[in-house]
Amino acid sequence: MSRVPLAVIAGILGFLLYIGVAVALADFVLPQHWLLQVLYFTLAGVAWVWPVGRLMRWAARK
Question: pLDDT exceeding 70 applies to what percent of the chain?
Answer without folding.
Answer: 100
